[in-house]
Design a protein that fits this description.
Elements (H helix, E strand, L loop, with lengths): L22 H12 L8 E2 H10 L6 H10 L3 E3 L5 E4 L1 E3 L5 E4 L3 H11 L2 H10 L12 H13 L3 E8 L2 E9 L10 E6 L9 H16 L4 E7 L3 H9 L3 E2 L4 E2 L5 E8 L2
Antiparallel strand pairs: 1-3, 2-3, 4-5, 5-6, 6-7, 7-8, 9-12, 10-12, 11-12
Helix pairs in contact: 2-3, 4-6
């Protein structure tokens, strides 16, 4: 069975012509509609309605506006006077975390993983040579759709000065090698590395988990050869959790843990 896609609910002009009946479809079309809003703009309710009217055909902008708010794509004042895309502030003024967007993020991600810089990024994330290959637009679109609909992860795009520069995510399920919840990050734009962006993003995720109050610890890991990740995580307060080990591909890893209390 093919994966869901927002395209099946759009007409030839890119307008939403059908409200999906299932959760995954709803999330995908809401993410698509959210891409029509600028993250740096505050909108009145009238302006939100006008944009939604432009991008759907069944004349129920109130439903779409409510769903965008209820499912975490946009925020509004309590009196409903102002709306804006939901964003999570970090300790860096120019860095925010936002919901992933197929329209915005997929083309940029293709560029991240192209060329020698992309090969090095994938290698440091633990991809073997057999899997260390350039990506395609279709592959990135599917990956981001999974980010949007997946209930086992929470994923945010990092916007730095209004431009996507990477992703940070929480894995809520333990794996063979790592306990949960675990935090992971990829800074795809090599031009913004070593500017404190990774640390600010992970600190924000740690803060969110502390505020939620459900977890006592958060986990992570790094490839032994990735000294940059090691230094970043240790600086944030993570400590070694057990000894180094090798996975089934022969790659050496070190697990870490951080007490959230």
């Amino acid at each position: 069975m093919s994966k869901p896609t927002e395209q099946r609910f759009l007409d030839s002009d890119g307008r939403l012509e059908q409200w999906p009946s299932h959760r995954q479809g709803k999330l995908l079309v809401l993410a698509y509609l959210a891409s029509k809003f600028d993250p740096n703009t505050v909108y009145t309710e009238k302006e939100v309605n006008e944009i939604l009217q432009q991008w759907h055909t069944f004349n129920d902008w109130a439903l779409l506006r409510r769903e965008l708010f209820d499912r975490g794509f946009i925020d509004r004042n309590r009196d409903g006077t102002n709306y804006r895309l939901r964003e999570i502030q970090t300790s860096l003024p120019d860095l925010i975390l936002v919901m992933p967007s197929v329209v915005r993020d997929a083309p940029i991600a293709v560029g991240w993983l192209a060329g020698d810089s992309g090969r090095e990024t994938l290698r440091l994330m633990g991809n073997t040579e057999d899997h260390n290959k350039p990506t395609t637009l279709g592959e990135e679109q599917e990956r981001i759709r999974d980010f949007i609909t997946d209930t086992e992860h929470a994923t945010w795009t990092m916007l730095y000065r209004s431009k996507p520069v990477g992703v940070v995510w929480i894995d809520f399920n333990a794996t063979k090698y790592l306990l949960a919840p675990s935090v992971h990050i990829m800074i795809g734009d090599s031009n913004v590395r070593r500017q404190g962006i990774g640390g600010a993003a992970i600190k924000t995720v740690i803060r969110l988990l502390r505020e939620e109050g459900r977890y006592k610890k958060i986990h992570s890991r790094y490839l032994s050869s990735n000294q940059g990740s090691m230094k970043l995580l240790v600086k944030l307060g993570f400590s070694n959790d057990g000894d180094k080990y090798k996975d089934e591909d022969g790659l050496a890893w070190q697990n870490l843990v951080l007490d959230l209390n």
